[in-house]
Write a structure and sequence with these properties.
The complex is a heterodimer of chains A (about 250) and B (about 325). Chain A is of the alpha+beta class. Chain A has 7 helices and 13 strands. Chain A has a 4-stranded antiparallel sheet with strand order 1-2-4-3, with helices on one face. In chain A, strands 5-13-6-7 form a 4-stranded mixed sheet, covered by helices on one side. In chain A, strands 10-9-12 form a 3-stranded antiparallel sheet. Chain A is elongated, with a radius of gyration of 20 Å. Chain A starts with 6 loop residues before the first strand and ends with a helix. Chain B folds into 2 domains: about 190 residues, no CATH class; about 130 residues, Cyclophilin. In chain B, about 20% of the residues lie in helices and about 30% in strands. Chain B contains 5 helices and 19 strands. In chain B, strands 1, 2, 3, 4, 5, 6, 7 and 8 form an 8-stranded antiparallel sheet that branches. Chain B has a 7-stranded mixed β-barrel with strand order 11-18-15-16-13-12-19. A two-stranded antiparallel ribbon of chain B has the order 9-10. In chain B, strand 15 and strand 16 form a beta hairpin. The longest helix of chain B is centred in the last third of the chain and has 25 residues. Chain B is elongated and about 65 Å long. At the A-B interface, strand 3 and strand 4 of A face strand 14, strand 17, strand 18 and helix 5 of B.
């Protein structure tokens, strides 16, 4: 991949966006994750948040903690330049691999699976097999707390967004659209094709860390049956109860 | 029992400076909408900036203080009283146990912050006591106050209140208003907009050039009105529809406090304290950080005009505002 220099643009006077690409590219996103890691390793006191996103990286300032006389935008430009001029941290060494159990069975959990199979001219089992085998990676967490944008979907499983969004998609649902997958941490409305459900709780403010997914994580979906789903769901509910207690 | 909620008011939530360092996990910063007023309220009772206050919105709550408490109500000008006397704003007030404080409607501005010696003791969730209502966490069980709630306060509230008020009394003495004791000075109102509305500095947003010439001009030339459909996540602005000349698809990307984004319906939304960390709408402008407190004091119907500023001007304005706040806080601290 060509190591093209990113564009640094202000997001108001309290943040900058380091923009690498206006379109989604997995290799570019990997570089964004590396830069995020490099900035974090330096831990500048005046940077409050490092937010890697699909095509760029935001740095949010705590301007009060910047040395007097230093302007935040200029300081951010300098920081990014310095990080990029050195060897960036190796993403493969930094990344966790998360195994996410998913039950791809039944109308309740996988209402759109048959339709996806039909559109992709695949058997249902092959859709599941390909979804489990895809080299997924979390590109960004945003939109809602713990809500992951997961890239790496097998191109054979590419389906457009649904024309009519579902008013309710239950938390834990696993869905796909275009080149991405998502696991919904919250029950909300959604326009992606729901192909399974995971029994895990993906966001819990009482837990450390509160979110299962972090940007840069590799994700491997593992197919489970309904019995296993029920067992894991009971465990998750019990753990949540335990964490709620003071 | 510390502070009991008789009536909750329109939207009263526990807030502090916000939840930072977790935006990469999609976790919203939250915090006081008008952080300047939150700081001043804390300074008035001798608290550090990060102590939790109660953010009162447009129509305030009715509270009973179970113990002697040093409190201050700072920010919007609310009509506020106890059974026997009007409640003095923008200054420290020693309230005896058993007092009922009724905070009525806001007369000018939209949000005031009630600070109490030692701060409200909501548990720290992810490093902050701020309430995030959409995610149902932080503050008091992740929600706005309701009737019957007990607001936890510091264990040494009574001692701290007495000791701090005694220090205030040393200089120039206090005044007595009914059962309340206060001081002969008050803090200046720093974030209240002019009665005609607010004039806010804004930078061109990074997608500004994508909008057609009429929309680009209209943003800085037209008056805007805060829509009733506004909340802690964002203010919708009523005015001309803003249209992009080249409506290209935008990848979802990080957003900030004060980002003005324009969804396809053409109605701009200013992102406020509870805004999502990322979004895929074009950004026509970014409001200067120094002017956010004034914006937070606008209620629905309030009028806004934007004036264009450069990044350097916005950075200067932030430093000037921060120096002014620090100076006012120091002058209050001097009284202690």
């Amino acid at each position: 991949m060509a190591a093209q220099a990113p564009r640094i643009v202000p997001l108001g006077d309290a943040a900058v966006l380091v923009e690498f690409s206006e379109t989604l590219d997995l290799a570019v996103n990997a570089r964004i994750q590396q830069l995020a890691a490099a900035v974090r390793l330096r831990q500048p006191a005046w940077i409050r948040d490092v937010v890697p996103a699909l095509g760029g990286l935001a740095l949010h300032f705590d301007a009060e903690r910047l040395a007097p006389g230093l302007l935040p935008f200029a300081a951010a430009e300098q920081l990014v330049k310095e990080c990029l001029s050195r060897r960036l941290p190796d993403l493969e060494k930094l990344s966790r691999t998360l195994e996410v159990p998913v039950c791809y069975e039944g109308e309740e959990f996988a209402p759109d699976l048959a339709e996806v199979a039909e559109r992709c001219k695949l058997k249902v089992e092959d859709v599941v097999k390909r979804h489990c085998a895809s080299p997924h990676r979390v590109l960004m967490v945003g939109f809602a707390p713990g809500h992951p944008y997961i890239g790496g979907l097998d191109p054979r499983l590419s389906v457009p967004r649904r024309t009519t969004p579902r008013p309710i998609v239950t938390a834990g649902s696993v869905a796909i659209a275009n080149t991405q997958s998502v696991v919904y941490p919250w029950t909300i409305s959604g326009g992606w094709s729901v192909i399974g459900r995971s029994p895990l709780r993906f966001f819990d403010p009482q837990r450390d860390p509160p979110a299962v997914f972090a940007p840069g994580d590799r994700v491997s979906f593992v197919a489970i049956g309904r019995t296993e789903y029920d067992r894991l769901a009971r465990d998750a509910a019990r753990d949540a109860g335990r964490e709620q207690r003071p | 029992m510390s502070v009991r909620v008789m009536r909750p008011g329109l939207l009263s939530t526990v807030q502090d400076l916000g939840r930072f360092g977790l935006q990469h996990l999609g976790i919203v910063a939250c915090g006081a909408m008008d952080t300047l007023s939150h700081r001043l309220a804390n300074a008035l009772v001798g608290n550090p900036d990060e102590a939790a206050t109660l953010e009162c919105t447009v129509l305030g709550p009715e509270l009973i203080f179970g113990r002697d408490s040093l409190v201050a109500l700072y920010g919007a000008e609310f009509s506020a009283r106890t059974a026997s006397t009007p409640f003095p704003l923008n200054r420290p007030v020693l309230v005896p146990a058993g007092t009922t404080l009724t905070v009525g409607p806001a007369i000018r501005g939209a949000r005031a912050y009630l600070a109490i010696a030692g701060g409200f003791q909501a548990p720290l969730v992810l490093g902050s006591r701020s309430t995030y209502v959409p995610g149902q966490f932080g503050g008091l069980q992740g929600r706005a106050l309701k009737a019957g709630d007990q607001l936890p306060t510091a264990p040494d509230l009574v001692e701290q209140s007495a000791a701090r008020f005694a220090r205030l009394g040393r200089r120039g003495g206090g005044i007595v208003r009914g059962a309340l004791r206060s001081v002969r000075w008050s803090a200046p109102a720093l974030s209240l907009p002019d009665r005609r509305g607010a004039t806010l500095r804004a930078l061109e947003g990074r997608h500004h050039a994508q909008f057609d010439a009429a929309s680009r001009a209209a943003f800085f030339e037209s008056p805007w009105r805060v829509s009733p459909d506004s909340n802690r996540m964002g203010y919708r602005l009523l005015g001309p529809k803003l249209v992009r000349a080249r409506p290209v698809e935008i990848l979802s990307e990080p957003t900030c406090l004060g980002t003005v984004q324009v969804p396809n319906d053409g109605t701009p939304i200013v992102l406020m304290a509870d805004h999502q960390t990322t979004g895929g709408y074009p950004k026509i402008a970014e409001i200067a950080g120094a002017d956010i407190p004034e914006l937070a004091q606008l209620a629905p119907g309030g009028e806004i005009r934007f004036i264009k500023c450069t990044l350097e001007e916005a950075e200067d304005a932030r430093r000037a505002a921060s120096a002014l706040t620090a100076a006012v806080c120091r002058s209050i601290a001097w009284e202690y």
